[in-house]
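Notes, Module 5: Reading structure tokens.

Key idea: the token line is not a picture. It is a compressed description, and you learn to read it the same way you learned to read a sequence, by spotting repeated patterns. We will look at two proteins. The first is printed below with its tokens.
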Amino acid sequence: MRIVVIGGTGLIGRQLVANLRLQGHEAVAASPKSGVNAVTGEGLADALRGADVVVDVANSPSFEDAAVLAFFDASTRNLIAAEKAAGVRHHVALSVVGTERLQGSGYFRAKLVQEDLIAGAGIPYSIVRATQFFEFMGAIAATSAKDDVVWLSPALMQPIASADVAAALADVVTATPLNGMVEIAGPEKRPLAEFVGTWMADNGDTRPVAVDPAAPYYGIELDDRSLTPDADVRVLPTRFDAWLARSLVKA
């Protein structure tokens, strides 16, 4: 199949493109770097010509409320229009577990708009909701710091390795459209503070960690359901300690 990956040069996109090419598909990494801009529509018609599947793993460069809504609204509408013109048979999008429970955040309100546009577009589709990535534990620590103390929620999370996300996406992309949603997560459910604290310790970050139920996660107060999947989640195999050991070796 010819598969166009929007956001194909990012963390997930480049791994997905590699996986699909190994399976023998013609996988095209589309991004502003390659002259394809879903927000403005630039290059979409040419990129989607002859495509069987379009996968949207692009993310907004800004998380400010108005900017992130504008990004997902414009890019999704442009993709849908270009896909209809090109006769694309399957639209796949990466989203986030807990999106409907995190509507206090402009980012997650924008993701819900994206999901609703896809579901109502009339194109066969699959939405893959993933939990937080292992790779973002450092970013969580950075955004949770105040006066050199890292304030973290004890709420449960079930994060996942980006490589497992890319592998699961490849399975969905090459299968029959779900016309619905599937959730994916890693194998371990533990407090957010424990995952981030472990990452900090293993990466030599000696700042003290304060665990507080009111500590915000990107501006949102969490509970144990906020970031955790439903019971029918597809669980991927990579454990956090194994991923951490490999990432430290690479570093």
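Here is the second protein, with the sequence above and the tokens below, as before.
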Amino acid sequence: MAGYQQFCPIARALDVLGERWTLLVVRELMVGERHFNGIQRGIPRISRTMLSARLKRLESAGLVERMDGEYRLTKAGENLAPVLRELGHWALESDPRGLRKEDLSPEFLTWDMHRRVVPERLPVNPTMVELRFRGTRTSSCFLLVKRPQVQLCAEDGGFDIALYVDADLEALTRFWLGETAWDSLLRSGLVTLTGPAELRREFPTWFSGHLLRPRV
């Protein structure tokens, strides 16, 4: 991409960060993705060729380094964290379009859920959770929960389902973003849980929410 050729710091920043997908690649590295395939899972519409090009561009700009097959943000790259958070807060608070139907994705929501967890609150024993999203073409998603992590699975893997979560996709997404309280979802019936009372009560505490929400 040709540079703007202006001394303005905003123009200089956009010379590096203004291309499509670039800031989403930085976002993925911010939340801890280290490998090419993991980064692509968080940005499912980017092609492998484009992702490779964006990573190389960020490397050449000194924002990303690759060591032992892993990608990591440099200090300069890490300094973009407050910038991305401010952009996200602008979208939450000021974007007149709001959250649109085309922004919703069961696949990205569950991918984000599996990596944004509070390890010490997870069950010690393997616990299989099935999530069903109303009114979508997506079949069930499965989370295998066992301290200290959560695995996102395409099927139950032979485990008994310990907890069923039936959810309206938009409502659960707004909870994930911090826009809606969990109790409100339960009262309205937009999310229903079926399983032992202890798991129903603890389920929302396993997750820390979107990166714009502070970790608990």
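Summary for the second protein:
- The first helix runs from residue 9 to 17.
- The chain has a mean pLDDT of 94.
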